User: What shape does this take?
Amino acid sequence: MLASTVPSCRAYDPCYAYELAVILEHGMKALLERQEDLFYYITVMNENYLHPPLPAGSEEGIVEGIVQGMYRLREGAALPGRPRVQLLASGTILREAERAAELLEADWEVAADVWSVTSFTELRRSGMAATRSNRCREQRQESWVERCLGPTTGPVIAASDYVSAVPDLIRTWVPRRYVVLGTDGFGRSDTRAALRSYFEVDRASLVLAALSALADEGSIHSGRIQQCMERYRLTPAALPPWER
Assistant: This one.
């Protein structure tokens, strides 16, 4: 959020090594070749997990998406006649979104696309530029968020290891129902898994948020919410995380 207020700052929150490599190459070209007056702020974590290679088949589109701030990492299964959701996540929480997509399809027959958000602040800049251009009646522009999510269907669920105000930065340009999950409050947990469960941003919480959004839209029966909570043993505390 603070990075979004600094014009010369380019802030990124990658999850996988190939995303980091793309950002570093782009940054070095900007700073060394084009001599742009910028600095890059890149968040990397010490969480241990396997890093896949750059997905084959659409490298150019993925590279552009990484730099712009968002690209589709996983296309949901083809489930004709079944509802679909869009899952957005930045940094290491992306892996929880990938697992949530698998659970949605295996347990609830809900197709789920997964989007890696490498920079909510860059997405916001793109949105603000498009809005300003359109307000001034210049050539009609689409924000990167609109370009990505416009052709898709279903509610959009975003998760962050930071406060929910970070994914909220792009709410203006999300074309449909938008639900954000973040780590608002003070965590009191000994492991990352316990911490994400405490803040209700883990895979089970993502599934619950997706099903709840679909139920609100009338795409699924509301009774599935209780079924979901029972299946994953979700027992929300009396107070939300930010008040505990």
Remarks:
- Residues 17-33 form the longest helix (17 residues).
- Helices lie at 17-33, 59-68, 94-108, 120-135, 144-149, 192-199, 203-216, 223-231.
- The radius of gyration is 18 Å.
